[in-house]
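Dear Dr. H.,

I hope your travels went smoothly. While you were away I took the liberty of generating a structure for the chain from your last submission, since the lab meeting agenda had it listed for discussion. I wanted you to have the full record in hand beforehand rather than looking at slides cold. The sequence, exactly as received, is reproduced here:
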Amino acid sequence: MNATAPRSTFTVWDLPLRLFHWLLVASIAVAFLSSEEDSALAGWHIASGWVAAVLIVFRLVWGIMGGEHARFVNFIRPSRAFAHLKDLACGKAERTVGHNPAGGLAVLLLLGCIAAVLATGWIALQGGEEDLHEAIAWALLGLIGVHVAAVITTSILSRENLVRAMVTGRKKAADHPEVRRVRTASPAAFIVAIAVSAAAVAGIRSIDPQAFSLQQREGVEREGGEREGGEASEKSGTAEHEGKPDRD
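The corresponding predicted structure, in token form, is as follows:
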């Protein structure tokens, strides 16, 4: 083989980023499918949420230390997002190597919305309001729908299969002749990302020992409510005792 032969494709999305993306898709899908208590997957609901939490922690680290097109600084351009959406509405889509401006903004919105779903879900398990958790979850589902529609539309208009690129990690060199080299993540980035993710798992297990096991939400919610009720009763009893004179 000729060592100087031109390459036909090049890597845009590294393996860790692609694994994160599709594992997050899977965890969110399981979370929605298991959201009803009578669902056959109901026992997976809490575990899928915690998996998503660890994945978000990993993505935050990878957004700082990962490969060139995984880093937030290289694709977060809010000032250009409106122009991109306007072009999309006019039937035009410019090819970009990594995330386009609107796609970069979507990444932030999706991560933020998922984090809000997870936070309100934990609050609900502790006996808090569940309506807010459900409302944000439905907002997330709508945001995902918009994201998927935008990806399909951009793929059609730009004639570049963005879904396939996120599966293989590669794009055609002929579509991006200006690209000479894509910077990859350093070995230190892998070590830090794994260490922080492991710390996240340990932290989650410290507050919920059964976090990554099958568990019924009803039991967890009852336990949280009983714990809060017990604390309230203890405080009430203490106050009542302090209010009575000592007969001895």
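Two observations you may find useful: The two ends are 99 Å apart (CA to CA). The helical segments are 15-33, 45-65, 78-89, 101-125, 131-158, 162-168, 187-207, 217-243.

With kind regards,
E. W.
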